[in-house]
Amino acid sequence: MPRHSRHVGQALKWLSPDAAPPVPWQRVVASNGTISSRGPGTDGAERQRATLEAEGVEVVVGRSGDMRVNFEAYGWFPAPGTVATGAPQPDAPAEEEQDGEAGDLDELTSEEEEEDADGGNS
Hints:
Blueprint: H1 5-13, H2 44-54, E1 59-61, E2 67-69, H3 71-74, H4 101-117
Antiparallel strand pairs: 1-2
GO molecular function: catalytic activity
InterPro entries: ATL_DNA_repair (IPR052520), MethylDNA_cys_MeTrfase_DNA-bd (IPR014048), MethylDNA_cys_MeTrfase_DNAb (IPR036217), WH-like_DNA-bd_sf (IPR036388)
Region (Disordered): 1-51, 79-122
C-alpha cells in the first residue's frame, strides 16, 4: 500500500503473537529494503532479521549497522490485479438463465441506458 506505511507499521505493532492465521510480519521492510529499527532498547529488528534468515532470505548488515534485504533477489512485485485477495468471489453467471429473469434485467438496463443517452426525453 503505497503511502500507507505508517498505518501498516501501527497495525503490526499491535499484532498479537497468537494471530490466526499467522501474519507474516517479518516480510514487511522499508521501500529501500532496510529493516527498520524499532527504537532504542528493542530487539524487533534483530528478531525480524533472524526470522527472515530462517526463511532463507539473505539479510546484509551494512557498515553503519543497518540491515538490508536485496529486493532484486528477494523482492516481490506482482503485476496489478494478479494477486488473489482471499475475498469470496461472486458467483459466475450461469450459462442458461431460468425463467427469463436475467434477460428481463438486461432489457431494463438497455432501456435505462437509452433514456440516459437521450436525456430521458422518450
